Amino acid sequence: MFFLDNMERSMLVLPTTMLTEPNQKRWHMAFTAIYCSRAFSTPLKKPRKKSPVSSTRVVIDVFEPHPCFPKIDQSVLTGIVKQKNLDQLGKYDGVEGLACGLETNLKNGISGDAEDVSRRNEAFGSNTYRRQPAKSLWYFVWEALRDPTILILLVCAALSLGFGIKEHGLKDGWYDGGSIFVAVFLVIAVSALSNFRQNRQFVKLSKVSNNIQVDVVRNGRRQQVSIFEIVVGDVVCLKIGDQVPADGLFIDGHSLLSLNFQQVADGFGRMLVTSVGMNTTWGEMMSTINNDSNEQTPLQSRLNTLTSSIGKVGLLVAFLVLVVLLIRYFTGNTQDENGNMEYNGSKTKADDIINSVVAIIAAAVTIVVVAIPEGLPLAVTLTLAYSMKRMMSDNAMVRKLSACETMGSATTICTDKTGTLTINQMKVTKFWLGQDFVNENGSSSLAASVVELLHQGVGLNTTGSVYKSISGSEFEFSGSPTEKAILSWAVLELNLDMEGLKQSCEIVHVEAFNSTKKRSGVLIRKKGENTTNVHWKGAAEMVLAMCSNYYDVSGNIKVLDDFERKKFDQIIQGMAASSLRCIAFAHKQVPEQENEGKIHIEENCLTLLGLVGLKDPCRPSVKKAVEECQYAGVNVKMITGDNIFTARAIATECGILKPNQDMKSGAVVEGVEFRNYTPEERMEKVDKICVMARSSPFDKLLMVQCLRQKGHVVAVTGDGTNDAPALKEADVGLSMGIQGTEVAKESSDIVILDDNFRTMATVLMWGRCVYTNIQKFIQFQLTVNVAALVINFVAAVSAGEVPLSAVQLLWVNLIMDTLGALALATEKPTKELMEKPPVGRTKPLITNVMWRNLLSQAAYQIAVLLTLQFKGEAIFNVSSKLNDTMIFNVFVLCQVFNEFNVRKLEKKNVFEGIHKSKLFLVIVGVTIVLQVVMVEFLKKFADTERLNWWQWGVCVGFASVSWPIGWTVKWIPVPEKPFLRNPKAM
């Protein structure tokens, strides 16, 4: 659209190099149209009156259509849907005319070959949208600079640099403060790089999670394609729970209802795609979404609280050190290198006083550096990023970081049946007509009238479809697993001809299937006849309740009295006891005149057509996976829409229900029974329930709420749109990657890519592994901080100096701890993790076992290092500088040896499985090499002296004692009741 003022004598000139060739042509056409318009509208030889303002405007709509689609303009297509412009649609002769212009057959779709798809993408764009630009590395550097911990360290470095220059001059003073600056910026770099990699990981996972499959019709064949491969002109098939993949026009369907965010809430239908990608409402909305992946998990929040508490303790200790040292100095209790009193009242020079005070402040600053555990947030990031990547390879895609750790605390799993516990490959194995069982080859003996009605009940009351290959020898069935199984049975056993059936019958009205009604109905009119037929299909006991008659194998209609009804109930229960899903078909003929006015499908006085039993075998590994979860102290509850007999049979086969458990024990209930309990009864009985049959989405949500109120950490699986409330309510929502609707996936925290309960057990084990690995690092980190804090505090107060400099402590807290976090994060899950009860909501992050381990190691390190601090020079006959280097070296090597102790928090043999942890050994080796470089080659930076072989041996000897100490203290029992109760524990 070009809007130009009629009275303005202005020329709009664009450099041709800025325009593509099609746009250059459009501008030339626009200029020609404007010029001609002015030429013919201006009177000849008539003087032009000056007018200050004119409201006359010329609107020129110039477009150059794509050569392949000369009658179609994308802007018009977009406007038709967004503005619901029926007038514009009428200019194209409706949906049929628009489809003709798009070269689409409304029945068979587009050709769908590579060339056709390519030209449609070229003409109308691809079904992709502009994402928010990925955050750069500098963004995360800036975020790190804003961290309070980093700011404190920078202030400390600046003070230390200023004091160092003041005391030692510019050249030598740089090594006091400049080294800290280097170390701090190294902290920033490592943190920024880690977060940058994590962000890229989320972008990658987001692309995977958005790769949705949708049903389209191409070349007469219904098939699944990626949402990104949808093109303008495609015919898309929609059903409940689907996400509408693009903008389009309704072709046909029944009871189709779409809610906000373009999700199908009810019914089914077909749509002609008119706009894709950025031309759609969805594309515009998605392009504005800021996918910020820097969410903070509950564990990270708790760690931040822990870090803050430690920092406050450090500041308090630093303040005490500052006060004590100042008092000692100004009371004359300190001496210089020559043994003279440093402060002698008015006789002491001002410069000497300033230098001494600067040194005292530097010591206090060092205490702050010691106290801040810089490695904790980084450890969590590394652990979660590594675990997420490994879980992805195990068919579990983590959408929310918190799910990694929360899953390890799960106490109850509420699981679906179909597709999760079973393989979701249904097949009709039993067929009853009346009270007679019909064998596979017995369909030929059925009455023709009954077979015809069955054809109508199966072929027209379905959201599935049948595609027959060109050779005519093979069939392809699409739809839900249940629909495909029934269609396959009808086509292969009852010789159903779908094409012929659709040509001979007209669908008048449809009642779509949903999880509440458990059935679907259709009202059809046979062409050329004056009657219509009602067909219902659904859960056997529900359809049976609507019937008052039934057909026998000869096609005779018989009355369904109470005695006969009990026989059918026994047939249904018998199939259910064999783990079969029982589906019933019912029929009723309705006179034409009864359909005037509001259309209604009769739901009573029906005639039962037949019963089919569908077998969906349990997955081979599911029983073992259920037993593993139960062994780990996690309760597994099955919530299904199947009847109570089928549910009980499947649950028993999977190991969820024990053979001696039945309805009387309260282990098996129906949804209606559960929802009719009083709140007190529900809270009392919810723990005993193992199976809930004939459940609605509300029943599932209600159970999750009750379990959480009782203190359980609940994981829920779901695959349908109606499962979204329960998935959101749960502590961890797990959706199915294959059969799950997009609504379910968007509401979940983890997507199970293979729809297998075995993967859920793996996720549980990974969750516990993540939680345990972080606990290991907390123990490792706190041992470092407690030991360093006590050593520097005691040394500063007693001797007026600190043995470990700020640079050395940053080296330990950053490099050693970062590598330590990476080493411990790469520990793979083991079966022993499933031998412990779940953590739940109340257990503290730091357990009594961890306190025992870290305090014993910290006590040993404090004892050794303080001995070296006060007696090391005399014992080993070394200089003060060399003694300080040995203290630093022993301290670092103690952490290296303690890293092995931390591998097993409770087991005495810390070397178990060490040969499988190759990455752990590599990282430990790298740590040792870096320490050698630090001591031997970075003398000025680290303020160290070179050590000889004997001195290295002494350092290693002191550090190696950590192993027997770690083995010994694990014999000491600790009470289960926590020493320190954490009120914020999950």
TrEMBL record:
Please state what the protein is called.
Calcium-transporting ATPase
What the protein does? This magnesium-dependent enzyme catalyzes the hydrolysis of ATP coupled with the translocation of calcium from the cytosol out of the cell or into organelles.
Q: What family does this chain come from, according to its entry? A: Belongs to the cation transport ATPase (P-type) (TC 3.A.3) family. Type IIB subfamily.
Annotated compartments: Membrane
Give TM regions: 148-165, 177-196, 310-331, 353-386, 782-800, 806-826, 919-938, 950-972
* Topology relative to the membrane: Multi-pass membrane protein
Annotated catalysed reactions: Ca(2+)(in) + ATP + H2O = Ca(2+)(out) + ADP + phosphate + H(+)
UniProt GO cellular component terms: plasma membrane
Annotated Cation-transporting P-type ATPase N-terminal domain ranges read: 94-165
Asked if the keyword Transferase belongs to this entry, the reply reads no
Q: Enzyme group, top EC level?
A: translocase
Give the organism the record lists: Rhododendron griersonianum
- One Pfam family named in its UniProt record: E1-E2_ATPase
